[in-house]
Specification:
With 539 residues, the protein is an alpha/beta fold. The chain is built from 20 helices and eight strands. About 4% of the residues have low confidence.
Amino acid sequence: MKVHPHHGLMRSLKWDLAEAYREEEQYWKLRSKEKLLSEGDRNTKFFHGSVQRRRVQNRILSLFDDNEAEQFAEGSKGEIAVEYFRKMFTSSNPSLISEALEGMLPRVTENTFPRRPINKELMMDLNLKVSSLITAHGEWNVLKLNELVPPCDVTHIRFFPPEVSVADKSVWAYTKDGNYSVKSGNWVLTREADLMEVIPADLQAANKTKERVWKVSTSPKIRIFLWRVLSGALAVAVCLRRHGLNINPVCQLCNGSNETISHVLFDCHLAHNVWSITGLPLWSHGSPISIAERVDHLLNLMEKQDVDKEWREAIPWLLWGIWKARNSTLYAANTNSPYFVVATALADTKEWLQQNILSQQGTVLRNQRQMVGEKLWTKPAFGKIKCNIHTSWIKDSCHVGGAWIARNHAGDAIFHTRDAFLPMFNRLAAELHGILWCLRGLRDIHIVSCELWSDCGAAIDALRRPEVYPKYRSQLLKIQQVIRVMREVSFHLSSPKANALAREIACSVTRDGRFTSYLARGGPAWLHNRIEDERRGRR
């Protein structure tokens, strides 16, 4: 009996097998967190080996307890870790609050590590709620605040008006929305551990060199390669032995010394010949300096104007070329000439720089095309009113001045105003206060439909996504209440140049000390010519 193959079934089975291989590869790729190999290659074995190496590297074999006894059991190691963090976050119950405040400077920071206000009292009331610090008129109870927290924190708290309609609840201080996340908790613990850790001087220098690597003008994959060089994360013999692999530590190319990263990139005969061809001023052959010092020296050479530009720019590609040549010799049995490595590095450098220049020029042209309609002030649609607003905030003194100017579809100024506000803690709070003041002013003069344009992107974002800005909830709710009684209000982001007139009027408050508020028809006389130029669309 002759059996004919079922081609459709065979194709289906081959497809299922290929899909299973792909899923297995993707699984181990995700577990290994390796991103340097291209997707689609059959690298399952490599990814699986990477996972095993990471497990060996990250495993904590033992911990020392309080009696300096080394513990290997999993339960004992867990108890030591729990006790360590319990002590770290447990109060020592100081008898005087001055002990806790000793060495602290009264400073309010906005973008650094957040903290709760310092409590003056020795005994803390755990049932104290925010609502108990608010008066019947919806304002902060300043006397109560001064009893509980230092003056610097009272000032900070008063910059954010309370919202009595919101019920008290517990919040996590290290996320914008106040909800706890594992990521933020890990960040807090890591930062606390970093602050307590004493970093050696050589490691600090290596970290600074790593920071410089990310600013090198080269391909992103070469930046990652340089970072791995400084981190000791290349698959050379010494590093692999450190991770538990029992292999020969001697360099397989020259058989002269142990295969370290420094040896492969600088001291091996191939690398030594490459650097000799370049003629760059390096250290003497075989000098006992660290890999971080050598990379730092090369980065310094790239910044020296007296070194030939062609060689300076090719330094990252020379390192990359030496590493690729080493791999092709070991794993593909290729013979690599140092002259070929140098020529390839120079050609790759030239090509990348040319393509990078073209890419940057294209980006600039695209940005210019996109900004053509935003750069200058334009008239609103027929029957619409366009209101440009700006809030001038001085960082050092926290002085705030605001102004807005409203114009119709013909470009004629119909109203403008300015005012000085109470000091604000940051620009966003000042901008939101200015927008609330503007909306109330428009409502009072019976303008219930308008376009509001501001050059503060954070303020526009807060109005569109109020849930991301819980600290400004009170101001945002007041703005929403005013909008509800108006007919139609839309918010738009303006370029600084298109918002220049409102900026000039607002800056006259903080710059020239013009604190007298007023509301007037038309535009200010001293800006008449500029208003007319914008109305006529003059450049």
